[in-house]
Amino acid sequence: MDELHFETQLAAVAAAIGDKTRIRMLCALMDGCAYTATELSTVADVSASTASSHLARLQDQCLIACVPQGRHRYFRLANLQVAEALEKLMGLAVPDQITLRSNTPQRLRFARTCYDHMAGELAVALHDRLCSRGWINSEHYTLSDDGQQAFKRLGWSIAPITGQRKFACACLDWSERRPHLGGHLGAMLLLAFERQGWVVRQLDSRALQLTSLGKKALLAHFDLVFK
């Protein structure tokens, strides 16, 4: 790709993202789920026809993908890289911590999905505890022998990595301004938390609810206290 074509393509991607309606749609898709055009039009507060043109623009720039299912067409983020880029842009958009805390709903600040892993206060605290206990090497983000044994005691199995995804990485949390755990391991932890009933997804947002069982488990296994 020559420099001129690269610059033109980069500008086109930026322009596709740089619209309030399309941003609302992209943020809605950050929960990792797929939605119909009608559902996304409701989220963005636009007509169905307007939503369709915006979705086409996002598809043209490979930011979202269409998944046909029977008579319906669902839309989701194109890939993990798009989700990671959006998360970083959210951090750039809210540089002032005081303003952020006053405007962002508490339930989203506390726990939410970041595509396929956990984010928010809960996820940051868990990241820090895994590192401080030496279960995760905070420099290379590998799982130590102690970490592997601890995960086995908790009944957590880590599925093999598919594709080129990193095993684990630090993902800067846009609300806490500190890293939470991303990558394959971060996704596996969210799956484990859900399977064990420690967190449940909210139907109308990216928010995660920490259950009473989850509070007891976090105290017992990680010495983390949440009210």
Q: What do these coordinates show?
A:
This protein has 227 residues and is of the alpha+beta class. It has two domains: 3-78, Arc Repressor Mutant, subunit A (Orthogonal Bundle); 81-222, no CATH class. It is 51% helix and 15% strand. It is built from eleven helices and nine strands. The strands form four sheets. Strands 1-3-2 form a three-stranded antiparallel sheet. Strands 4-5 form a two-stranded antiparallel sheet. A two-stranded antiparallel sheet has the order 6-7. Strand 8 (199-201) and strand 9 (208-210) form a beta hairpin. Helix 2 crosses helix 3 (37-44) and helix 3 crosses helix 4. It is globular and about 50 Å long. The termini are far apart. The relative contact order is 0.11.
Give a quick set of tags describing it.
single chain, 227 residues, alpha+beta, Arc Repressor Mutant, subunit A, 3-stranded antiparallel beta sheet, two-stranded antiparallel sheet, 11 helices, 9 strands, globular
**Count of extended strands:** 9
Structural class: alpha+beta
Q: SSE order, as H and E?
A: HHEHHEEHHHEEHHEEHEEH
Estimate nothing, just give the exact number of structural domains: 2
Mean pLDDT metric: 88
The coarse overall form would be globular
- Uncertain stretches of 5 or more adjacent residues: none
For this structure, the quaternary state is single chain
What is the topology, as strand order, of the major beta sheet?
1-3-2
Count, helices: 11
Report the sheet with the most strands, covering strand number, pairing sense and barrel closure: 3 strands, antiparallel
